[in-house]
Amino acid sequence: MNDKIADEKLDWLQREADNRLEAELIEVLKNPLFSSFRLGQIAKTYGVGFDLVKQEAERVAATTLGLDLDQVEFNSVVRQVEALEAISDPGLREWKIQALARKFHRTPRQLMDAYNKALAKQAPVMPLTPKELKEKYSAGVNWLIHGWIPKGSVLLLHADGGVGKSLFTYQIVESVLTGQPWQGYQVQQGGVLMVQVDEPGVILGERLDVRGIGEHPNLGILEDWQIEAMAPLEATIKRDQPELLVIDSLTAINRNSIFSENDTEYARPVLQLTNLANRTGTTVIIIHHSNASGNARGTRAIHNSVSEVWAMAVGNSPEERVLRVQKMRLGRPPGRYNFKFHEEDLSFTYLGEEGGEQEQDLTQEKKIQLWLSEGDRIGTAYAAIEVSEFLNISRGKARKLLSELWSKGLIQRKVTKTAKNQRAYLYFVPKKGDPLYTSDHLLDHPLKEDSERVLEVFKKGDPGDPHFFKQNNNWHSPGESANEKKLSGIREITDHLLGQTLTQSQKKGDPPPKKEGDPTQEADHLLGQTLTQSQKKGDPSQNHPPGVGDLVTICGGGSWIRSGSDKLPWKELRPSLKELPQIPLNQLPDALFHELTGDSLIISLSRDRKRVKVRNQQTGRNSVFAINDVQVLKQGGGDNAHG
Q1: What are 369-372's contacts with CB under 8 Å, separation 24+?
Q2: Is 182 helix (H, G, I), strand (E, B) or coil?
Q3: Which of 164, 374, 502, 521 shows a CA-CA span of 20 to 30 A to 582?
């Protein structure tokens, strides 16, 4: 009997001990700082072997927490490393990471490798409904540089050494600080924080002085920042709220990394900067190096971790640069874009998309802008289809040119919906006092006065024939009747009188052929009326003598004067023209003709005030013309200095 009682007591004591052990193991396993070292302490307390306690801990973890023991320990390590990452002192943080690695019998690299992979896997997956997605992005796209760099994005700019990627970025920095357009495109003005650990301070100072921003109050410079100091960098950005953060370069800020450039984990700083941009709205430009194949050097994860990737390389001549857009989410479409490097002031000039017709595009852009600015069309929004048909431009070209004009801030656009509830853009020149739209905000309704007209256009769709034209809001196909020919001819010539279309032959001074019954006779009558009205109203630009700072256009019937002008590309000229002191513009090749007759800025006047030196606003070429060959587009308000 006594033996039975003793056995029951022993069983009870054993169960109590098991219960206490299980409760203690559960408490230990739930501790965020759990490690197998704590199991050794329990084994010593109970006077049993470590393997027995570990076996019991594995059973408890599986039955109570639904985890295996290694996973519990791994989760604990991830939480501890995450806490250490928040330490602002990089030396102390590294010290503690090394100590933690030793505690778990791992090297620091093994520890951080496991932690980085855990971050990628443990990132929360929270899908949005279509309605939530629309609400989240209802404000549309905001831009740092219109049409090129979305605000809050991360851009990777890579190139070989010496190509000029840092200089290219400094010109962007200048535009952001001053608010002046970058290559003609509107810029969001604001502060800039530069992390420059790739160039000596003396060189950096000189280059900033060349750009005129060496003492700008809204420019901050960090010379020795490393990626380990992410926490204080984020605190600085939240305090100063710069529009742009420049990192030069990825290799320099990551030089203390325990990973090689080809390891996936090497891209972790890029992910951190991407998260920083998302949290703060600051745009980030990361400068990096290219590999032999022309892509970003190192692991592909670098390319994948950013939203925009640009590659720069030297073109066919020492001053030519080709910018390849390799990846975009909201910015510039992938393609090759040509720039010219000017060594004298370390600047770049945008020449246009490779393979495009830059001169013709500029002429057509001006044509569209003038058309939208004329009379009662101001303030009225037009679809690309309408612009295409009214101005006889292909629909694809009209869409591209309208987008370019919008990107440059020369016209505005709004987002509306078609009759089929599809997204569509409407372009317009705002009336004085109208609100400006700097982002693609989706309108609840189209512009009130245009709603019926626009919906009718989208109902009709694109007729597909570039010769279709519109009259009284109805689409017409080309016919052979005299009336339709007359209407088409009058429309073309009237556009010419309004300054909206200027064919190459007309601009060069070749008169259009006249036939019996040709509608130009009616246009001549219109021309007389137009000139009479213009003379009655008076044109202030015609009464203003050209002066320094004025924006002018060059008459197609004028002549280029060799003395004082920059050299022309002689290979493109006929031999008979090369020695002439003055070359008639209408004798030049088309591309050069369009360049020289484009918008230019007067930079000096001759002493006898019979000649002017102008600088082309697109190419930067300096040329001399007779003062009677220029027409003032906009008064600059400068002095009439002699040159």
Answers
A1: 369/405, 369/410, 369/411, 369/429, 370/498, 370/499, 370/500, 371/495, 371/498, 371/500, 372/411, 372/427, 372/428, 372/429
A2: strand
A3: 502
CATH number of 540-634: 2.30.30
For 590-618, the three-class secondary structure string (H helix, E strand, C coil) is HHHHHHHCCCEEEEEECCCCCEEEEEECC
Which residue type, as a one-letter code, is found at position 611?
R
pTM of the model: 0.54
Residue 266 C-alpha from the chain's centroid: 25
Only one residue has tokens 């088309």, namely: 590
Which residue in the block uniquely carries the two structure tokens 């090749």? 589
pLDDT in tens, 470-522: 333 343 433 333 333 333 443 443 344 334 333 444 444 444 444 444 443 44
Return the closest-CA partner of residue 222 out of 235, 209, 211.
235
Q: What ranges do the domains of the chain cover?
A: 2-122, 139-356, 359-533, 540-634
Angle between helices 2-30 and 50-60 (to 10 degrees): 70
Which segment of 3-17, 21-35, 189-203, 471-485 scores lowest on mean pLDDT? Answer: 471-485
Per-residue DSSP letters for 410-452?
SSEEEEEE-TTS-EEEEEEPPPTTPPP--S-PBPSS--GGGHH
Secondary structure letter of residue 377 according to DSSP: G
Rounded to 5 degrees, what are φ and ψ at 367?
Answer: -60, -45
Which residue from 420, 590, 440, 575 is spatially nearest to 508, judged by alpha carbons? 590
Strands 611-616 and 622-626: antiparallel
Strands 469-471 and 474-476: antiparallel
3-state helix, strand, coil in the chain (%, to 5): 45, 20, 35
Asked if residue 368 lies in contact with residue 391, where contact means CB atoms within 8 angstroms, the answer is yes
**Lowest-confidence region among 330-339, 429-438, 492-501:** 492-501
Do 167 and 297 meet the contact criterion of CB atoms below 8 Å apart? no
pLDDT at residue 437 greater than cutoff 80: no
DSSP state of 64: I
The Cβ-side half-sphere exposure at 376, using a 13 Å CA radius, reads 2
Please state, as a whole number, how many other Cβ atoms lie within 10 Å of the Cβ of residue 375. Answer: 7
Name the residue with tokens 């070209």: 397
User: Kind and range of the H or E element at 309?
Assistant: strand 308-314
For 337-390, what is each residue's pLDDT tens digit? Answer: 999 999 988 999 998 887 655 556 667 887 888 788 877 788 888 888 888 888
- Domain 139-356 in CATH 3.40.50.300? The answer is yes
**Kind and range of the H or E run holding 458:** helix 451-460
What gap in Å lies between CA 28 and CA 24, rounded to an integer?
6
Q: In 214-306, which ranges are continuous DSSP H helix?
A: 230-240, 250-253, 268-280, 300-304
Q: Which amino acid is at 195?
A: V
